[in-house]
């Protein structure tokens, strides 16, 4: 199936557990930021595995800014998806957008929106130094940016990771 959208997304799906809720029963706000990290990691696993090898050596993807606006409360067992897209990449800087959606009835409702700014760095002699975005990651991200060509939908286990629009 092709996605016919001016914007392509990497989609990370997740079912909320009791562990992710607070004493009141709704999702603790910091979990939204953790899901951004999980989404980003699953993107690397699916589309830029060579970047994971570089992280195991000396590459550091440093999050320098994160934000999240909340529109809807979430509860245990809600099924959510994060739609990650590239806003911009230049030099050693990557800006990502995250649209959070929750399954409600027969459709999806936007429940939050987030952003991250990441810097690509290398560990050198006990210090972090700026470096170019790894080629595999930079190329993979382009497919999820504005004006990208349609992408075929697929899924990965165990997190039901797919991309769509």
Offer a concise description of the structure.
With 165 residues, the protein is of the alpha+beta class. Helices cover 21% and strands 43% of the residues.
Plain-language structure description:
The longest helix is centred in the N-terminal third of the chain and has 18 residues, at 30-47. It is globular and about 50 Å long. It has a single domain, classed as Roll (Thiol Ester Dehydrase, Chain A), CATH 3.10.129. Strands 1, 2, 3, 4, 5, 6, 7 and 8 form an eight-stranded antiparallel β-sheet that branches. By secondary structure, the protein is an alpha+beta fold. It has three helices and eight strands; from the N terminus they run βααβββββαββ.
Q: What's the helix count?
A: 3
- The CATH top-level class label: Alpha Beta
Gyration radius, rounded: 16 Å
Query: What is the chain-wise order of helices and strands?
Result: EHHEEEEEHEE
Tell me which CATH architecture applies here. Answer: Roll
Number of strands: 8
**What integer is the average pLDDT?**
87
Beta-strand percentage range: 35-45%
The residue ranges in which pLDDT falls below 50 over 5 or more consecutive positions are 1-6, 148-165
Helix content: 10-25%
């Amino acid at each position: 199936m092709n996605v016919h959208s001016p914007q392509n997304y990497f989609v990370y799906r997740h079912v909320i557990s009791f562990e992710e809720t607070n004493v009141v029963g709704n999702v603790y706000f910091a979990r939204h930021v953790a899901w951004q990290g999980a989404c980003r990691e699953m993107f690397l696993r699916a589309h830029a595995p060579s970047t994971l090898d570089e992280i195991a050596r000396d590459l550091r993807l440093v999050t320098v800014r994160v934000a999240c606006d909340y529109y809807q409360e979430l509860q245990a067992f809600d099924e959510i998806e994060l739609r990650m897209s590239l806003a911009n990449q230049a030099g050693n800087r990557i800006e990502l957008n995250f649209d959070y959606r929750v399954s409600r009835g027969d459709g999806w409702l936007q429940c939050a929106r987030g952003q991250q700014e990441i810097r690509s760095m290398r560990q050198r002699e006990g210090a972090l130094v700026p470096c170019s975005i790894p080629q595999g990651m930079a190329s993979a991200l382009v497919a999820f940016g504005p004006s990208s060509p349609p992408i075929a939908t697929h899924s990965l286990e165990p997190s039901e990771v797919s991309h769509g629009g």
